[in-house]
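#help-structures
NK: newbie question, is this the right format to request a structure? protein is Uracil-DNA glycosylase
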Amino acid sequence: MLHQGRSALLRRCRGRQLARCLRGETAACDPRRRGAQRAGSTVTQAVCHGLPAAATATAGQVSDVTELLAGLHSESWQQALAEEFAKPYFADIARFVAAERAAHKVFPQKELVFRALNLTPLEDVRAVVIGQDPYHGPGQADGLSFSVPQGVPLPPSLKNVFKELEADVPGFSAPLDGSLTKWAREGVLLLNATLTVRRGQANSHSKCGWQTFTDAIIRAVSARKENVVFLLWGNFARKKGALVDRSCPVCWLCGFARPQRPTRARGPGITPSRRCTPVP
């Protein structure tokens, strides 16, 4: 078994990579770990070689950025966002998040911050759902907008999404499980505009620079992908429509996913497709 396992490992190696594996450096044979190393290397090189945008970065900032990007494994997103990683604002995000984690409980866990990008590589994106920021309750945030881990009670916003889908999509039945991992693996980019949050404090990280970064993600999808549907639920998400290429005929502004009281004058909500309007 040991020999077979080693043979399988070696088959995944090429050239210098083979030599590294023979020396026991198994990270060289793990695509995900290689991806994380490349992301960190990209940032380090950008800073050390003095790209104008990163000229003032300190060694500590480089370390913070490298640590933050250790959780990003998607090669297509690493390449598409490489310029963003070298900009001063991204170093500011990394420093802020590191300081927050040192002093407070921050959601989601480090390894889940870029989960939406890891589960839905750029080349696989078919639709984009934009949320505001992660859930700030214990055990809720799983790195995907609106989603919660299996076994966690459904938050009101997710209940409302399921309710509207039941009303609008024939045959749709709201699942008891709130994990949207399957959606992500099928090409739905479940992106929060802010990727981290302090426990118990909604929008606490909304001004640290995350939205500049996620705006770049939205632009990358809009510029590089055709026939992508943008589901922009709510007033906050609607503002992101300005980032989408106006030549895209399938970008939609939809009703909000926040829970509403049926007694309000405007009713219980706006369904995702019956009341959608295309961006002009």
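mod (FA): yep, format's fine, and the tokens are attached above. DSSP finds twelve helices and seven strands in the chain.
NK: thank you!
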